[in-house]
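Bench log, entry 3. Co-assembly request; chain sequences pasted below exactly as received.
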Amino acid sequence: MSTINDNKIWPLLNFETFEKQLNGQAESPLHDLRKKAIERFSEMGFPTMRKEAWRFTNISPVEQQSFKLDAGDVPVSLDEIKPFLLNENDPVQLVFVNGVFKPELSEIHVKDGIVVQNLGQAIKDDPERVLTYLKKNENVFDYEFSALNTAFMKEGAFIYIPKNVVFDKPIHLLYISRAKDTEIVSHPRNLIVAETNSQATIMESYAGWNNEVYFSNPVTDVVLGENAIVHHYKVQRESEKAYHIALQHIHQERSSHFASYSFSIGAAISRNDIHNVLDGEGCDSVLNGLYLAHDRQVVDTHSLIDHAQPHCNSREVYHGILDDKAKTVFSGKIHVRKDAQKTDAIQSNKNILLSEEATVDTQPQLEIFADDVRCTHGGTVGQIDNNGVFYLRSRGIGEIKARNIMIHAFAGEIFNEVKFDSVRELMDDLVLSHLEDGHLKHS
Amino acid sequence: MLTIKNLHASVEGNEILKGIDLEVKAGEIHAIMGPNGSGKSTLASVLAGREEYEVTDGSVDFDGSDLLDMDPEDRAREGLFLAFQYPVEIPGVNTSYFLRTALNEKLDYQGKDKISAGAFLKLLREKMKLVQMDEKFLKRAVNEGFSGGEKKRNEILQMAVLEPKLAVLDETDSGLDIDALKIVANGVNTLRSKDNAVIVVTHYQRLLDYIVPDYVHVLYKGKIVKSGDKTLARELEKQGYDWLKEQEPAAANV
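Structure output for the full assembly:
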């Protein structure tokens, strides 16, 4: 940190460049927030392992690289991104390359007053409206990397579902990184607003080409009005040399329902923070996740479910499958405030180790200040059920296939409930191709 | 079909099977009876290829091949089937997918074309009638949340789909009520032919009222101490297994 003044760390250098490029927009009310954000970030600096929240994950490789905001003109064709798209008729998709919105790759067919656009456009059109919803995320400066994201907030998705409107198709936000020779950083910012009684499904994908080194630092703010329903899917399939650090902040009002399915398979180091505030009576939150890690991948999930009001339910189930020297961290905090009586919170994290050298740190944390609540949690680390493998083999199924069926089934428990075939099949194909490639095969 | 000679097997250094000799021909039903701990289930597990059991001596010939030299999956593909005493629950794998995969692996091994989804469903429906299983089971995960009787019926369903040459039923009757027992027995009897054989491992004579054996063997302390026809089972039912203990010194000298 002592280097900030004499030898500026890359985010601060990037910010100077960024401000110059903003031109007229540097005067908007949004920009005050950006300036505050970079100040906060420079105060906090990159987190070290001395910080409780980063105790198990060493993020210094991100600090030590010198990431650039601009990779120059790197063309990406529709054919190249096809493998990352959802198999839907008339898809709705926003595509970003190196953090920059690409209208020519995007498809936006929406009606009933629904807004699906680049955040940059939304800021131009109505900065006050954007700011109003951003303020629902009161925790943005609690996280170093979300402060950093906020400093560079410009590109990303703005999705607005008006009152009583139901949109029954996944809106796909695809972030492609194509670094080539430049080590690029992008700070996607997604703002998703579902007004009273509305319903929508959002999917975020982060993808890149293997062996490319880059850094994705997205933040997604989801704001649910009363009785709104949002299903959220995330597929993180970055290059295995990339870094991915993300925050999802979900703010729920009375009787709203949020369901999230998060799938991590890529990146050298990935970190997902989920901060879910249940800020009205009778909210429901489902947070499901699956991570597959091999080689020396590090996958870190931190969630905080803030039960601020009574009669809310939260369900969190994360499954992990680790091979080689992979390392995963799961830290799930459930915070039940004094007034949040009748809270019903269930949390579980199960891990299968396919190698003796893989490591898992799983730590559920309950902070309960109400007296009439039900909170349960559990974390397990084990091997593939050998009785199951033998049972399958005894029916004529070969050993490798039997093991793969067991792994696939364990993974499938997380996403089998995904409502949209296109999303479920994409997740399923990713698991299967990972197994077929032999990434997860050891005993 | 199956020739077991002087089979010795141990688990964690303890010898459980101490020299088994058994010959099973096509078309025959053999019952293996005996008190708890006599080695009945060990014999079934060794035949199926469970890795925890170490064969220390002897041989098992299955239709001209050395059974003990084969992986569990190849034993199954060659036509051996073990109905488990405790069928395993496999969350996340639905029964229909599981059975189709197993059948296709066998067809593939035999150099035959895989079965289409449509043809398989037709076959499966037919076989399910045999064990009176409801179609809703097909979509459920293998054995997950099944009652004891449902699990055992599921074993017989698998047997019906895979059509083994030799089926080994390991205490398939334990814990079954009389209705479930009849369904299981009826399934086995319907599948019986002059080309296949069945080994029924059981503690009780009751199942043998419904699956009538050609031969009954008594297993005690890792050896077959007595063999006879179906009347031997009746005798055992009357006398219990206590008489074995009196004969022990003699049995040890066999």
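The first strand of chain B starts at residue 2 and ends at 11. The CA atoms of residues 143 and 154 of chain B lie 8 Å apart.
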